[in-house]
Write a structure and sequence with these properties.
mainly alpha, 76% helix, 0% strand, flat
Amino acid sequence: MKFRFLNKTIEHQRFNYNPMYYDERKERIERKKVQYKRLDDGSMTEEERRDLLKDHIRENWTRGEYRQTQQRSSNLRIILLVCLILGLGYLIFNGIDEVDTIVEYLF
């Protein structure tokens, strides 16, 4: 009697799987290439040209909004750093004795 099942090694299964992911930026670039090629060929209708112009204006608008939010956050950081430096300068030049009296008064 052969006990083949006791001596048999289990092999792993192999799959031919290629992971795919969605790259919105790449698809948008490909779509723009096709649109501009059609625009150069002259095969684009008037409605498609309007849509292309609307997309262009929309992208510029959102880019401007992003720039404004980045500028605001940068300005806020600068203001906070200046306030912190001024506060530390005040403590250094006026001495820590006044700070001790303020802390004792609060607690």
